Amino acid sequence: MIPAQFDYVRPASLAEACQELGSDEDAKVLAGGQSLLPFLRLRLAYPSKLVDIGRLADLRGVHDRGDHVHIGAMTTHDEVMRSPVVREGCPLLALTAAQVADPAIRHRGTFGGSLAHADPAGDLPAAVLALDGVFVAASASGEREIPAAEFFVDYLESSLRQGEILAGVRIPKLGAGWGFHYEKFHRTAQAWAIVGVAAAVRRSNGSIAEARIALTNMGPTPVRARAVETALQGVELGDQVRQACVEAAADTSPPADLHAQPDYRRHLAKVLTDRAVRAAAGAP
Amino acid sequence: MPRITVTVDGIQYEQDVEPRLLLVHLLRERLGKTGTPVGCDTSNCGACTVLLDGKSAKSCSVLAVQADGCDVVTIEGLGANGSLHPMQQAFHEEHALQCGYCTPGMVMAAIDLLRQDPDPSEETIRQGLEGNLCRCTGYCNIVRAVRRGAQEMGQAVSRP
Ligand SMILES: Cc1cc2nc3c(=O)[nH]c(=O)nc-3n(C[C@H](O)[C@H](O)[C@H](O)COP(=O)(O)OP(=O)(O)OC[C@H]3O[C@@H](n4cnc5c(N)ncnc54)[C@H](O)[C@@H]3O)c2cc1C
Ligand code: FES
Ligand code: FES
């Protein structure tokens, strides 16, 4: 299948890219193209112009900034999963990126593209939400920070405004004692998550001191499982963890589709949260 | 219309392309590289896999303009002097194909896998080929072929 016609520009700087985007409301950013090109080929989108940010070196790469890790929007999934800085400073993202799609798609698909696309079935949005990442949006009028909790607005909709480009994300480092896991449930290897759970857990003396849990594909946006986070505080590792996870699907509105009905997704959310928390805590 | 320069299987081409032209169509319809097939509409099957600047990519999911200045290797660029590449030979020996439609993509993905891990386990091979679907063989012979191809390639390198 062949996409409908569009214009194509490859700006030499972020400022120029913002200008190109700001001057045409039907223009779209082209990053890795691994979500956009399938959309264009199926003619689900008709942009007037693609602004290719694929060669903007400033947007690419991972940087250790002391208390946080900065990940440029154009860093590919493959680079994120292999980056020593990510593995050290925010290992949850390396674990999660490794579970996105397949190797060929991970070579081209980008960290920023996955987030800006705001697909609730995408794996990285939940992981960044669990880590309270801070999104850096660039536009002709400068930069703006958006907390993860405000970035995802609705199905395929982020809080980026017209003319804004996601430049990168700051991931605050969690100190010692934290463990991480991303539990993804899908039917075939390269498929999207039916439900996914991103977990960060801090252990102290055989109990859980603190937990951060975010869910993939349990509503139109990724969501934090706040009820479980509260219930897990002070819980000893063992059977009580499962008990604390029963509220995992509280306040969610999971979709119905080919793969699962909402009640099955609610069931999965409980089971997978329990698994993710145990794995993050290093418990059997 | 943008003009691009792209090297495919060692030969440099200059082409005027519509922005919407997909890399796979550039390869097949302009350059006659029909060794790279299209197997799906959804970027799932991997039949169209090529190496783009040395890394595997699904050529149905890349615009030709995005490949401007890049180096592309297709299945047609693997063999040398009329003989098959060791990975192609291994697919042949192990009967790793029936209709052969997925084979170009499988071979390219397998070669990409060896770039990261020259001696992959069966599990690593299965994961490395997760983006390539075969509707005929059931994968067992494909996995065996990749093991064999890896061994042959390892020997080829270590031979004096
Ligand atoms: C077969 C297949 C399986 C997949 N499986 C998974 C999976 O299991 N899990 C998963 O998470 N993802 C999966 N993906 C999607 C993949 O992760 C994509 O790489 C990702 O969703 C989009 O990143 P991209 O760089 O390719 O963005 P593009 O496709 O280039 O862009 C996607 C959208 O985001 C916008 N955009 C991109 N970058 C920016 C930016 N910096 N600023 C503003 N807007 C921007 C674009 O305008 C576009 O609307 C799959 C894709 C395919 C084809
Ligand atoms: S044709 Fe490219 S993935 Fe199927
Ligand atoms: S051999 Fe027929 S699809 Fe793989």
From TrEMBL, chain A:
It comes from the Bacteria. Keywords: FAD, Flavoprotein, Oxidoreductase. One of its GO terms (molecular function) is oxidoreductase activity. InterPro entries: CO_DH_flav_C, CO_DH_flav_C_dom_sf, Diverse_Substr_Oxidored, FAD-bd_PCMH, FAD-bd_PCMH-like_sf, FAD-bd_PCMH_sub1, FAD-bd_PCMH_sub2, Mopterin_DH_FAD-bd. The keyword Cytoplasm does not apply. It comes from [Actinomadura] parvosata subsp. kistnae. It holds the Pfam family CO_deh_flav_C. The keyword Acyltransferase does not apply. Residues 1-176 form the FAD-binding PCMH-type domain. This is Carbon monoxide dehydrogenase. Signal peptide: none annotated.
Automatic annotation (TrEMBL), chain B:
InterPro entries: 2Fe-2S-bd, 2Fe-2S-bd_dom_sf, 2Fe-2S_ferredoxin-like_sf, 2Fe-2S_ferredoxin-type, Beta-grasp_dom_sf, Diverse_Oxidoreductases. Signal peptide: none annotated. Keywords: 2Fe-2S, Iron, Iron-sulfur, Metal-binding, Oxidoreductase. Residues 2-78 form the 2Fe-2S ferredoxin-type domain. Pfam families: Fer2, Fer2_2. Gene3D superfamilies: 3.10.20.30, [2Fe-2S]-binding domain (1.10.150.120). PROSITE patterns: 2FE2S_FER_2 (PS51085). It comes from the Bacteria. Pathway: Alkaloid degradation; nicotine degradation. GO terms for molecular function: 2 iron, 2 sulfur cluster binding; metal ion binding; oxidoreductase activity. PANTHER family: OXIDOREDUCTASE WITH IRON-SULFUR SUBUNIT (PTHR44379:SF5). This is Carbon monoxide dehydrogenase. It comes from [Actinomadura] parvosata subsp. kistnae.
